[in-house]
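[step 3/7] inverse_fold.run input=structure_tokens len=223
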């Protein structure tokens, strides 16, 4: 074999015009494609999100989706994903029988991406993706909720006692999960609202002196 062949090939590579396809291949191999998608597609929509709600977009892995859905096993009814991203968890919830399955996401580009994925999967008429502020979404009738860094105070205030909340990737620091599924970044935490509420006082639940006096009077009258 000619020892000069590698050098000639290298020189040809340096001088040869790669063209669009060649650049795309190199970009895909070095991870620049992901960066370009973020800068050109997702970042403009991300800038429109209020600072207090800005969370970097990290797609849920297949393992994480499986962990989330495992924690919902045996339940039925409606399903809500707060911060639904590209919509893959909502799609899987629909496939497993949850209806309606709704995703809420503030980034408009991610909402469009989720709708495209649903259309490509043939479920665009069965699932719904809405661009709304998580603080303004009415959760009073929701019983199956998955979240990614959603406001826990809002959940505690609005959700019914029989609701199940599953947090992906980041647990609620002040809540006690009754079950954990998965490992590492794919881990998910399940919280029962019925079990959670005894550890939390609402403003209206704090007893006042007048309330205590009324209770004492009632007890004396019954004896």
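[step 3/7] decode complete -> sequence:
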């Amino acid at each position: 074999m000619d020892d000069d062949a590698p050098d000639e090939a290298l020189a040809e590579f340096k001088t040869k015009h790669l063209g669009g396809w060649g650049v795309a291949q190199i970009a895909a191999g070095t991870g620049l494609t992901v960066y370009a998608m973020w800068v050109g597609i997702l970042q403009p929509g991300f800038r429109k999100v209020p600072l207090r709600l800005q969370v970097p977009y990290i797609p849920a892995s297949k393992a994480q989706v499986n962990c989330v859905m495992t924690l919902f096993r045996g339940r039925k009814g409606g399903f809500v994903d707060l911060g639904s991203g590209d919509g893959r968890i909502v799609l899987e919830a629909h496939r497993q029988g949850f209806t309606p399955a709704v995703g809420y996401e503030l980034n408009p580009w991610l909402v469009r991406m989720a709708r495209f994925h649903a259309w490509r999967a043939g479920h665009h008429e069965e699932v719904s993706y809405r661009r709304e502020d998580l603080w303004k979404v009415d959760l009073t009738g929701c019983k199956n909720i998955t979240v990614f860094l959603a406001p826990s105070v809002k959940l505690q205030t609005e959700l019914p006692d029989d609701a199940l909340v599953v947090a992906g990737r980041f647990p609620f620091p002040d809540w006690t999960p009754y079950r954990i599924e998965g490992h590492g970044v794919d881990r998910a935490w399940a919280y029962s609202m019925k079990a959670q509420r005894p550890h939390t006082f609402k403003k209206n639940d704090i007893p006042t002196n007048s309330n205590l006096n009324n209770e004492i009077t009632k007890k004396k009258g019954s004896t």
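[step 4/7] annotate
The longest helix spans residues 32-47.
Residues 9-18, 26-54, 201-220 have pLDDT under 50 and may be disordered.
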